[in-house]
Amino acid sequence: MALTNFTGVVAVITGGASGIGLATARTLHSRGAHIVLADINSPGLLQARDIVFEHNSESQGQILTITTDVTNESHVEELILQTTAAFGRIDLVVTSAGIGRGGAIDTFSASDMQMMMNINFMGTYHCVQASLPIMRPTIWSLRFP
């Protein structure tokens, strides 16, 4: 079963200024979702907002941008607070903030590996940890009406 109707869904998307995050935002917005774009790249967020809007300017979904460093727990908590203040809930969190580096692992410095772990792993952890208490009542009511 394909999910195609996201009308009114509130989606937080980290890494929303480019790549997979931006592509996900474009698709969800075109299907009616309210989009919260989060990224460490403030100018990129503004460009992404315009791209998402231009992709489907007739969508009823709103677009909010929040500069966020997913490695910083307090930044992620603020992202979730601002989203909840703006929309009253969170239905979907897409953690696409990430970095990569090709090559053999023995060519990575410890600091390079730590940076990847902080963004790719801990960034997701921070987002899930901060958003789950907001999302849990909605998820629970969907499972047990």
Question: How would the blueprint of this fold be written?
Answer:
Layout: E1 10-14, H1 19-30, E2 34-39, H2 42-55, E3 63-67, H3 73-87, E4 92-95, H4 110-143
Parallel strand pairs: 1-2, 1-4, 2-3
Helix pairs in contact: 1-2, 3-4
Please characterize this protein's 3D structure:
With 145 residues, the protein is an alpha/beta fold. The chain has a single domain (10-143), classed as Rossmann fold, CATH 3.40.50. It contains four helices and four strands, in the order βαβαβαβα. The chain has a four-stranded parallel beta sheet, sandwiched between helices. Helix 1 (19-30) packs parallel to helix 2 (42-55) and helix 3 packs parallel to helix 4. The longest helix is centred in the C-terminal third of the chain and has 34 residues, at 110-143. The radius of gyration is 16 Å and the shape is globular.
Helix/strand/pairing category = alpha/beta
Radius of gyration: 16 Å
Strand content: 5-15%
Mean pLDDT: 92
Number of strands: 4
CATH names the topology as Rossmann fold
Please tally the helical runs, counting DSSP H or I stretches of 4 or more residues: 4
Give a quick account of the main beta sheet: strands, pairing sense, barrel closure. Answer: 4 strands, parallel
Low-confidence stretches: none
* Shape-level CATH architecture: 3-Layer(aba) Sandwich
- Helix proportion of residues, in percent? 40-55%
Question: How are strands sequenced across the largest beta sheet?
Answer: 3-2-1-4
Provide tags for this entry:
Rossmann fold, 4 helices
Summed up, what is this model?
By secondary structure, the chain is of the alpha/beta class. The protein has helices at 19-30, 42-55, 73-87, 110-143, and strands at residues 10-14, 34-39, 63-67, 92-95.
